[in-house]
């Protein structure tokens, strides 16, 4: 049996953050498919058995823990394995700072914008989409400026901060509405560096579930 089991599905960039870390760190793991699109995470029994927060990713560990929230999982894994860990106390603070920024703004606005734009059953309110895109643009600009002077988020080596921020960067422009090579050149260059890591895979090749064509 694999060392780690990751409850996940292929459209989830938050699950992809952890899956990509596990793969690039060379850890033994397997995915457990969660049928989010059919409402699995809203099921009462699923919440009792797997995660009362009703979210993926959920990481099962060898000692029986069930860990949730991607930033917390990445931090735990780095501390447990030493893989892609911040180098010292200053870097641990910086990693936390960027992970919190990612969860609050960088991933949060982009993920919501992408879901409404590409996968929501009903056509979204254009004003809501415009609001979310403006917020996503602002967060992307912060990261793009930061990456103008550094190869990775904390310096010349990738850390868990990079895996956190990378969650939605490898989904196609048909879903996200962003062509990084044109819109955010420093972010695009950074993603190309991440692609050279041993174990890197596209989210649709790494995570379970069926790829869904964007609705609009």
Give structural notes.
The protein has 216 residues and is an alpha+beta fold. The protein folds into 2 domains: 4-84 and 201-206, Glutaredoxin (3-Layer(aba) Sandwich); 89-195, Glutathione S-transferase Yfyf (Class Pi), Chain A, domain 2. 51% of the residues lie in helices and 7% in strands. It contains 10 helices and 4 strands. The protein has helices at residues 13-24, 44-49, 70-81, 89-119, 126-146, 160-165, 173-176, 180-183, 185-195, 203-206, and strands at 4-8, 29-33, 58-60, 66-68. Strand 3 (58-60) and strand 4 (66-68) form a beta hairpin. The longest helix has 31 residues, at 89-119. The model has no long low-confidence stretch (mean pLDDT 97).
Second-tier CATH architecture of the largest domain = Up-down Bundle
Structural shape: globular
What sequence of helices (H) and strands (E) makes up the elements?
EHEHEEHHHHHHHH
Mean pLDDT: 97
Content of β-strand: 5-15%
Report the helical percentage: 40-55%
Q: Provide the structure class.
A: alpha+beta
Describe the protein's topology.
Elements: E1 4-8, H1 13-24, E2 29-33, H2 44-49, E3 58-60, E4 66-68, H3 70-81, H4 89-119, H5 126-146, H6 160-165, H7 173-176, H8 180-183, H9 185-195, H10 203-206
Parallel strand pairs: 1-2
Antiparallel strand pairs: 1-3, 3-4
Helix pairs in contact: 4-5
């Amino acid at each position: 049996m694999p060392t780690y089991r990751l409850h996940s599905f292929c459209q989830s960039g938050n699950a992809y953050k952890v899956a990509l870390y596990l793969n690039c760190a060379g850890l033994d793991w397997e995915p457990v498919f969660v049928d989010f699109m059919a409402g699995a995470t809203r099921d009462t029994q699923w919440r009792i058995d797997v995660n009362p927060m009703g979210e993926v990713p959920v990481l099962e560990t060898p000692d029986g823990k069930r860990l949730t929230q991607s930033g917390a999982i990445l931090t735990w894994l780095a501390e447990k394995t030493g893989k892609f860990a911040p180098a010292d106390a200053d870097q641990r603070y910086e990693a936390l700072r960027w992970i919190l920024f990612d969860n609050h703004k960088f991933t949060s606005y982009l993920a919501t914008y992408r879901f409404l734009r590409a996968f929501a059953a009903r056509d979204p309110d254009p004003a809501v989409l415009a609001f979310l895109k403006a917020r996503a643009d602002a967060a992307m600009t912060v990261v793009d400026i930061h990456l103008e002077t550094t190869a990775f988020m904390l310096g010349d080596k990738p850390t868990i901060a990079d895996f956190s921020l990378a969650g939605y960067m490898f989904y196609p422009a048909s879903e996200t509405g962003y062509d990084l090579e044109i819109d955010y050149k420093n972010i695009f260059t950074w993603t190309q560096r991440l692609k050279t890591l041993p174990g890197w895979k596209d989210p649709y090749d790494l995570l379970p579930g069926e790829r869904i064509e964007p609705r609009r």
